[in-house]
Amino acid sequence: MELKPPIPILRMYDLEKTKAFYVGFLGFAIDWEHQFEPGTPIYMQVSRGACRIHLSEHHGDATPISALRIELPEDGALEAWQQELRASGYKYYRPGLQDQEWGTREMSIEDPSGNKLIFYRQLPRA
Q1: How far apart are CA 38 and CA 93, in angstroms?
Q2: Could you tell me how many helices (H) and strands (E) the chain has, helices first?
């Protein structure tokens, strides 16, 4: 039996700030939004390439201040994207890169709800 990649659910508290972060800053697309009726919490999916994330305003759907790791498989893609994000003019983040002793280069960013997204790539082995 083959399993498909999991889709994490992250808690969100401010819909407009969340959209500005994921769509405006990180370049994700909103695939769909669901709301049982007007005035109730939103549940939505955002994606960029094969990366899909669910975001929920529903109490109890996810633990606030979660973390997830998202791999960028291409050499140079992380570095190029980091430069794009720094040049974007988004006032809340100017992300840096950090080489970790376990062999990855990482760019860590918090979304408006405090969830940590760690974008990374494997470094060549010496």
Answers
A1: 32
A2: 2, 8
pLDDT tens profile 24-78: 999 999 999 999 999 999 999 999 999 999 999 999 899 889 999 999 987 889 9
Q: Are 57 and 44 in contact (CB under 8 A)?
A: no
Q: Which residues make beta-bridge pairs with 117?
A: 68, 109
Answer for the pair 82, 120: CB distance below 8 angstroms, yes or no. no
CA 98 → CA 16, 103, 107, distances in Å? Answer: 30, 11, 7
**Distance (Å, whole) CA 50 – CA 36:** 27
Unique residue bearing structure tokens 């997204």: 117
For the chain, domains (ranges, CATH) are 9-122 (3.10.180.10)
